[in-house]
Amino acid sequence: MMTPERWRQVDGVLQQAQELEGDALRRFLDAACAGDEELRREVESLLAAERAEDNFLSQPVMEVAAGIIANNSTGRETAQQYDDQLPSNAPTLIKAGQDDGQLRLGLMQGVLLDGRYLIERELGRGGIGVVFLAQDQRLSGKRVVIKVLLEHWLKTDNRLWFERKFREEIKALALIDHPGVVPALDVGQLPDGRSYLVMQFVAGEPLSQSISPSGIALKRAANLIHQIALALYAAHEKGVIHRDLKPDNILLQTVDGEERIKLIDFGIATVRDAIGTGSSSTTVVAGTPRYMAPEQLQGKPEKASDTYALGVIIYQLVTGQLPFNSKTLTEIAAEQRAGIKVRPRDLHPDLPEAAERAILKALAIDPANRYQDAREFGNQFRQAIEAVDPFQTNIGVSLQEDAPVYSDAPPTQRFPSRRRFLISAATLLAMLLLGALAWRGLRFDRTDSGNNPPVNPKPTLPAVTERTVSYSFWLKRAAHPRNVEPVLSRDLIGGPRDEFRINVSSPQAGYLYLINERPTPTQKFDVMFPAGGSAEMRAGQVLQIPPPSGQPENDWFGFEREGDTDKIWLIWSAHEVPELEAVKHWANAEDDGKIKNREEVETLRRYLAAQSANVPTIEADEATKQTKLTGKGPVLVGSITLRHR
Amino acid sequence: MTPTATPDITKLLLAWSAGDQEALKHLIPLVEAELNRIAHRQMRREDPGHPLETSALVNEAYFRLVNIERVNWQNRAHFFGISATIMRQILMDIGRRRQRNGEKTVLQQSVLDEMPVRAQGASPDLVALDDALKALAKLDELKGRIVELRFFGGLTIEETAEVLKLHPSKIKREWLSAKAWLYRELGN
Fold first, then answer.
1. ipTM of this predicted structure
2. Which chain B residues have a beta carbon less than 8 Å from that of A205?
3. Total H helices, total E strands in chain A
4. What's the pLDDT tens digit per position in B51-95?
C-alpha cells in the first residue's frame, strides 16, 4: 500500500521521466533512483502503463457517454418516458394512485393532463412551484403554461393550508381582466390533490433582458412603467398583490408594432411569503430581495409594496443600476434604512427633476408616503418625462459635451467626444461613493416623518475650480506575462497570480494619493501611492504606479485573495492633504503600505466619506482604455473596484 | 420565464456553486433526463455506427441545457468544473445500478473509421474506473480532480488549468502521471 508521501516521491521522478526517452531516460533513472530499486520499478511500471496502446482515458467520456446513457435499459423510471417504442409525442396518462415520486416524474414531456394538456417541457422551477409548457389538445395544440405547486410542500404539515392558499390565488388571478396581466385559462387537479393553473402562453422576452448598463431611453422607460403601473392597478383593484414584481416577471411583447408588457407570476409569491413566515425559523425568500419594499422584508406586504418594487425597477431602467445592491435580506434592509445614496439624476443627468421626485416618492420607506396607487405613479412619471421640452434636453446634452477641455493636455489624454459615454454598470457601481454621512444623519432625522427616503443632498460648493484626472490600468495575466494590455477599470478582474499597474495623469499639477480599501475589517486600508515619497504630480506628467524601481518584474501590484473585491480610492488634490500625508507616513515601508492602527483607519474613513460627497463625472474611453474623472472643487475623489477572480 | 432552454438548471448550478448541497440532488435527475432524451432520440434516428456524432450532440445538448452563455464568463471555468462532477455522478449511478444487476458497463472506445484498429478488450468497467479514481484522489487529490475534469468534463489542458488556477504545463505533467497510475491500477 503506497502512502501519499511515497507517491509524491514516485510521482516526482515519474514526471521528470515522462519527457525522456532511451538512453537519457535510463541515465536519469539511474541517478534519480540510485539505491532505491523499488522506486525504479514503480516508475518503470508506471511509464510502461502510460505508454501502452489502450489509453482510453485520452478520449473524454463524452465520446462514449451517449451510448452508455442510451443503453441504460435498467435505469430508473425517468428513462421510460423516452422509451424507444413510443413516438416522441405519445401521451402517457397519469393514473390516480401513483405515488408522489412517480407523479413528479410523470409530469414531464409527453404526459397528457386531464385528457387535454399535453406537457411539452418544463419551463422553470422555483422554490414554490414548477411551470410547464403544454399544448391544449382541445384547441388544436395551442400553447399554454401550466403551473403546479412543488410536490414537496405536500409533505409538510401545512399541506392543506398551502393548497388552499394557492387556490385562492388562482381564483384571484382569474378575476383580473387586464391586457397587462397574463390571464388564467383553466384550473384543474392532479391525482395527488394538487391544483394546477393553466395560463396563456406569452411568447415574449423578460424585461430583465432589456436592461442595459447605461439605462434605456427615457421615453421607452416611461411607456413601460406606465403600462406596468396600470396592470398592477388592475390587480390591486381585485385585491391581488403581486409581491414578486421584478424585471424577470415582466414580459415584453411587440403587438402591432408597439411594445406591450405582461405581468406573470402573480400569486405564487403569497404562498412563498406564508412559507417564509409560517413554517420555521429559517426565512425562505426565494425571490430577490432587491426589489422588495421594507415592509415586505418584514413579512408585511401590501399594495404599496408593489409600487415600491416598481420604483426600484424604474430606477434600474433609467440608470442601469439598482438602488440597493446587497444580497441578503438583512443587508438590504440596512441599505434601505440608510437611504438612497445615489440619486437617479446623479447617474442620468438628463432625467427631469420631476421624474426623479416621482421615483424617490415611490421608494419612500413608509408605505403611507408613497403614491396612493400604482396608477398615479405611472401617470406622474410619464408626465414628468413627456413634459420636458425636447429642445431643453438637447441643451442639457450639449452642455455636457462642451465641458471644458484643457488645452494644455497632451494629445493622448484627450477624449474624442464621439467616443465619450457614461461609464457602465460595474464602474458606476464602483463610484457609489460612501456619501456624506454627516449630511445624511441630519437629513435622516428630518425625513423620517417626511415623504421621501433620505437622500444625500449635494453640498453646494462654490465652483472654485474644476479638477480632472485620467487613469488607465495595465493588466499582466499570469498565463501570458509578455502580453501586457491596457484595460478599463470595469474589466479589471484578476486571478491570484495576475498583476496590474496604473498610469495616472492630469493637465493640472497637484497631489495624488491612491488608497486600497479591502473587504476585510481587520486590514482595511493600504497606501498604494505615494510609498514614502512625495505625492506631487506635475501637469501633464504620466505617473506609473508603482513607480519604476529598476527591476521591471517588481513594478506591479498583485491580486491577492480570490473572489473578493477591493476598492481603490483615488484622491487628486490641488494641495497637500494633511490627513493623507499623515497616513502616508504611518504606512511606512516596513508595514508594506498597510495601515494597521485603528485610529488611522478611522481618520481615513472619515476623510473619504466627507470628500466623496462631491461625485465626479466619469468618462471612459473604450479606445485608449482611459478613464477620466472631472469634478468641481479643489479635491477630486473617485473609487475603482478591483475584482478578484 | 422565457420559453428557452430550462433555466432552472442554471439556477440550480448557481445555487450549488454558492454552497447549496440540496441543489445537486435536484440537478442530477434533470440533467440525466435531458441527456437521456437526446441520446435516445439520436440513437433511434442515426446509424449507431457513428458514436462521435452522438456524443457531439450530447455534448452540445448538455451545454445548451446548462445555458453556459448566460453564466457570467468569470464563472465559466467553474461551471465546466461542476459539469464534470455531474457527468461522473450520472454515469456512476448507471454503472452501479447495472452492477447490482450483474452487468458491466464497459467504456467502449469510439472507433473512427479512419483510424487504425486498436488493441481490443482492455477497456475497463466504469465502476472499476470510479473506484480507482477514488483511490487516486485519496493518494493525490489534485490528480483525481484533473482526471475528473479532463475525462468526465471533456476539458482541455488549458481549460483544466483555468479551473484549477494552475499553469497548463503543470496540468499536463500531472495528467500524464495520473493516467499512468490509473492504467496500471486498472490493468491489474
1. 0.71
2. 2
3. 20, 24
4. 334 444 445 445 545 554 444 444 555 656 666 777 777 777 777
